[in-house]
Amino acid sequence: MGAALRREPVGSPLLRLFPTAALALLVVPVVAGFLGIALPAFGYLPVLGGNNISLEPFRALLAMPGLFRSTFLSFSTGLLATALAFAVVTLFVAGWRGTRFFRELERLVSPLLSVPHAAAAFGLAFLIAPSGFLFRVGSLFLGFERPPDILIVQDRLGLAMVLGLVVKEIPFLFLMALAALPQARAAEMERMTAALGYGRVVGFIYAALPALYRQLRLPVLAVLAFSTSVVDVALILGPTTPAPLAVRVIDWQHDADLSRHFVAAAGAVLQVGVTGAALLVWLAAERLMALLCRALIYSGWRARRDNWLRHAASLAMTLSAATVLAGLCLLALWSVAAWWRFPHVLPQGVTLATWMRLAQNFGMAFRDTLLLACVSSLVATALAIGVLEHAARSGLHGPGGALHALYVPLIAPQVAFLFGLQILFVLAGFDGTFTAVVLVHLVFVFPYVLLSLSDPWSAWDPRYGLAVRALGHGRNAVFWRVRLPMLMRPVLVAAALGFAVSVALYLPTLLVGGGRWPTVTTEAVALASGGDPRLVGATALVQALLPFLGFLIAAMVPALLFRHRRAMLASA
Amino acid sequence: MSGEGACGLVLREVAIDLDGERLVRLDATVSPGEVLTVMGPSGVGKSTLLAFVGGFLGRDFRARGSILLNGRDVTALPPERRGIGLLFQDALLLPHLSVAGNLLIGLTPSVKGRVARRQAVEAALAEVGASPTAIRRRSQADRRRAWR
Lengths: 572, 148
Description:
The structure holds two protein chains of two kinds. Helices cover about 75% and strands about 0% of the residues of chain A. By secondary structure, chain A is mainly alpha-helical. Chain A has a two-stranded antiparallel ribbon. Chain A has a two-stranded antiparallel sheet with strand order 3-4. Chain B is of the alpha+beta class.
């Protein structure tokens, strides 16, 4: 059957609520959050004595020591991290697509992506710090007895923070690139440019990258917005004198002096400006790169000797993956280390004391993490299924208009709109409630769940539905008895991804939860300043393992349910 | 067929357009037991005609005319109430169901009750010589028989 069968009739009125609810979820909190910071930033917040509109908060903000450096740090580290992650992913895809090595790394994407930023940052710190694993190994050859006196983690330039962001954003951009590659017709383009005598990497950049980048632009901008306003990674790896702007906004917001709330609101507005400026610079750089590429194409430069570039890209990808995995191993080692003095490469004794301490003190955080992650991922998955089913019944491919709205909360700097949202929730007496925290988790969980599910949902063969309807079953029966069971595996994977995103959320839980909903992530980050490395290792490891648990369940349930259905297992 | 629409399938003044271009124009009557073959090159509208008859025509198409099945006008009915089945070229079995499950989903609702429906399926399986284990597992042969 041809194209005539691909579209089904219009969706039901009840289903129409799903896209409306999804759009509201994605847009309303961001708009409300920005309004929530705009008024205090201009001095208006009657509950704190701000009854007049004024520029005083901005004057106070500008008088803050080190403000320019904080602002520049946020701007420069965000841009650098995004540019590096994007360059590595692009060059790797260009140089290795279709190879066995590429497929091997493809398999690592999901596990790497599921490691929370904070856990990866702690792992990196344990790896590269002067007393870290690399220097312990180095001491075997260089013979030093004490950690070298150099500032690596929390360095003034923010390079450790950039590295932490790069290793975590590479898997995300790689996954997005993998999803977009079929539409870029990379294989045909590669054959065509090779036939014309172009090198593999340059041929890809000339012919396939423009189409690929169109699909990648929003994810890249989301990475840039996140990197310029990140808080948890900055608290663990970033400079402290002064800290990046987003961290200082949170400090002012938590200051015992309540008048600092106005400074924090002005700082949040400045953060919006910093992220906006970084986005504009990126968009300008896009144009410049396009002009440069065009000039190179016209010049006939074919760059046939690009092997060094391919190998550099593969080295960067491998090192990035190895860094995260080695970091996880170090978290595990620290969590069972009884005594681990420098320069010993391995712990001098093994104990479960840290884990017993963790079990005693972090039970509530563990319970809250599971509760928040389960509820938010289930609600997000149900909402995503509703949106996609409505789109399918309306004859749309994919989530339609909601797809662009997905990026609204991902591109808006978290620290700005969450702070505003918290002010509004406090005024409404809604802050710190379970519903408020779940709602704000949903803002971040839902986009990833919908992104993960939309391709499998669209790829489902509509002829199954037609055949079953021709046998006398309605659209709802097709949904419950055919489409949903057949898509059980991607639905569970999307829910597991939502679970992983929720577990990793730091700022939304901290700001909207008001400290009443401690999670393993908020507890782990709180241990960053001077915490016992054993406890840091155990807490961060739990934080990293919880998402794996979600993915494990997502893999096991269909395997169990469909153990007698070879076709369902083969479609995994 | 005696008299219009008394028995069988009648396509009356069917016309289907796509982007303002006429794709199908047909008047036809198919009596019970009769086979009507629609032939034509790729893109001429064979699948489109079947989609119209089945009730699955995409929204890009504009269709006129009516479909009568055994004297009843089914043109405005949803696919599940037309009583018109579609069989695709490949065996479109539901992969998450057993052979029995695939048969049960196609069994007419007039067979009521869990036991009666199960017995009807077992009888159908026995008729084509499918193994009783087909309820849980299916072989290539069972797969083919499920479509008979």
